[in-house]
Amino acid sequence: MIVEIVDVIDPGQVYTELSHPNSGGSCVFVGAVREFTNNEEVTALEFETYKTMALKEMEKIAAEATEKWKLNKEVIRHAVGKKAVEEPVVVVGASSAHRDACFEACRYLIDTLKERVPIWKKEIFKNKTVWISAHP
Amino acid sequence: MIVEIVDVIDPGQVYTELSHPNSGGSCVFVGAVREFTNNEEVTALEFETYKTMALKEMEKIAAEATEKWKLNKEVIRHAVGKKAVEEPVVVVGASSAHRDACFEACRYLIDTLKERVPIWKKEIFKNKTVWISAHP
Amino acid sequence: MEVLLFGIAKDIVGESSFRFDEGDVVPKSVSELKQKLKNTFPDLGKLSSLAVAVNSEYANDEKGLSQGDEIAIIPPVSGG
Amino acid sequence: MEVLLFGIAKDIVGESSFRFDEGDVVPKSVSELKQKLKNTFPDLGKLSSLAVAVNSEYANDEKGLSQGDEIAIIPPVSGG
């Protein structure tokens, strides 16, 4: 199980990390910076985290997935700092004997990360910055 | 849209292929050779294909996914020949603005590929070879 | 009319393709072709499914066959 | 008792952390801390949610606070 907060994500390495002799399938989700939000052009996203707690929560989430599904490998990796359009900001993945488990686990990892892990994202537009989800 | 049949798959390249300024998420599935089937040790898998038709079917499947979901990029790539344990044999993926679409499309791509694309897999054990799914 | 064989169908027939030539009784439809093959090679009838492609597209049983068509016998697929 | 601030909570308070020292009235529970903060910084009350972590674990309102705890104010998270 790999759980990390890093400055730069290389999505290409994750397949090797998920490889296992008993894994017939790996499912990976990569989140990246989109150019437009509600038709407004985004210059960059900036991520900050409460690192000790974020790593603890990510480990809990990975352990929950291991309890729910029969997984051989898991990766949860999030980037911090300023990220330009198309840059990867998060990679989660799981590998398992059959594909149902890795698809469901991968979805669980990203959904639960977004709900619980203390990481905050600020959208940087030309003339303003906005903390995402801060207001109702 | 990338649709290919190749000798060797490099799963690391697929993320770059799915990257797009309007894609907030990419979902990728990699299928690989498992060491055991029903507790019997597999030495290798061997894949053969009816290439002209396989490429046509893969293109149809990618087009169907594009009709069902709002996707920015798609990849369907299958390997042929003899593959050892842990070697990748298939990679499918899609990228989209939001993650629902790419997860659902990715699942559709691999499920439908397995149902329709004329590719045949032979399991090579120590003392026998078996064409998969050939018999009821 | 050339008929391509793949996977276990190739192993059962023992060839990767065969031809119906001028002198042969050429099957006029997909169902006729399937019947002819199953009669000659009973093991083909024991497969979980047997599909036929005409010019690299799946064809239903009613599909007519012409001399110039590329025909393929598609045993149960198992890619991925 | 040190309180860490993140994201928009840091911007509202204008600091990345602050301390309750010996002379201060130290909040005895998570709910007391939240109430105190919302009174001093009304904009914290306008957020979609406001959680508190004690020693890097989410804590409910009833959770008691001790002088040595590391407290963190967790505005709505938005990773991924």
TrEMBL record, chains A, B:
The keyword S-adenosyl-L-methionine does not apply. Signal peptide: none annotated. This is Molybdopterin synthase catalytic subunit. Pfam families: MoaE. Its EC number is 2.8.1.12. GO terms for biological process: Mo-molybdopterin cofactor biosynthetic process. It catalyses: 2 [molybdopterin-synthase sulfur-carrier protein]-C-terminal-Gly-aminoethanethioate + cyclic pyranopterin phosphate + H2O = molybdopterin + 2 [molybdopterin-synthase sulfur-carrier protein]-C-terminal Gly-Gly + 2 H(+). InterPro entries: MoaE_sf, Mopterin_biosynth_MoaE. Keywords: Molybdenum cofactor biosynthesis. Pathway: Cofactor biosynthesis; molybdopterin biosynthesis. Belongs to the MoaE family. It is an enzyme of class 2 (transferase). Heterotetramer of 2 MoaD subunits and 2 MoaE subunits. Also stable as homodimer. The enzyme changes between these two forms during catalysis. One of its GO terms (molecular function) is molybdopterin synthase activity.
TrEMBL record, chains C, D:
Keywords: Nucleotide-binding. It comes from the Bacteria. GO terms for molecular function: nucleotide binding. Gene3D superfamilies: 3.10.20.30. GO terms for biological process: Mo-molybdopterin cofactor biosynthetic process. Belongs to the MoaD family. This is Molybdopterin synthase sulfur carrier subunit. It comes from Zobellia amurskyensis. The lineage of its organism: Bacteria, Pseudomonadati, Bacteroidota, Flavobacteriia, Flavobacteriales.
